[in-house]
């Protein structure tokens, strides 16, 4: 007889956000480079996708928090959004080289906000490899 271990599943738990272009660093942080932060979506910035949360409904609101400050938000207003990820962007001018914490909160219609914890640790490095090119000729100085 096979016995499966009990799992502690919280059906209302919020899932990790997805950061296209980010890399997983050995210390558990997410690495964000210049391309992910500013070049992939130059007019919008860093793309953050929030996976579908349980009981996602019309009028639910999701807020993206960078160092506990709301940097983007969206309210579910179209039935097609109920089965799709919510995509938010962090403005390209908000990110400088350094460390940040990224979290989000979902406010289900008529309920208290639920915070994604613990926040993701971001290590943002916007410097190009090799630094500034001081020689205009072919190749990097």
Indicate the radius of gyration in whole angstroms.
19 Å
Order of helices and strands: EEHEEEEEEE
Give the N-terminus to C-terminus distance in angstroms. Answer: 68 Å
Strand content: 25-35%
Please tell me what the overall shape is.
elongated
Number of strands: 9
Mean pLDDT across all amino acids: 89
Structural class: mainly beta
The percentage helix is under 10%
Uncertain runs are none
Can you summarize the main beta sheet?
7 strands, mixed
Number of alpha- plus pi-helical segments: 1
What does this protein structure show overall?
- This protein is mostly beta strands and 141 residues long.
- The mean pLDDT is 89.
- Strands 1, 2, 4, 5, 7, 8 and 9 form a 7-stranded mixed β-sheet that branches. A two-stranded antiparallel sheet has the order 3-6.
- The protein has 1 helix and 9 strands, in the order ββαβββββββ.
Describe, in short, the structure shown.
With 141 residues, the chain is mostly beta strands. It has one helix spanning 34-39, and strands at 23-24, 30-33, 46-50, 61-66, 69-75, 86-90, 98-107, 113-115, 120-125.
């Amino acid at each position: 007889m096979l016995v499966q271990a009990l799992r502690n599943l919280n059906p209302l738990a919020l899932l990790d956000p997805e950061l296209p272009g980010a890399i997983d660093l050995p210390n558990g942080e997410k690495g964000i480079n210049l391309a992910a932060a500013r070049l992939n979506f130059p007019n919008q910035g860093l793309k953050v996708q929030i996976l579908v949360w349980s009981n996602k409904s019309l009028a639910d609101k999701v807020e993206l928090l960078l160092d506990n400050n709301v940097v983007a938000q969206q309210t579910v207003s179209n039935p097609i959004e109920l089965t799709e990820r919510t995509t938010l962007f962090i403005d390209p001018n908000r990110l400088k080289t350094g460390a940040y914490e990224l979290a989000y909160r979902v406010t289900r219609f008529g309920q208290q906000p639920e915070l994604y914890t613990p926040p993701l640790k971001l290590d943002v490095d916007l410097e190009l490899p090799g630094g500034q090119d001081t020689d205009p000729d072919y190749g990097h100085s």
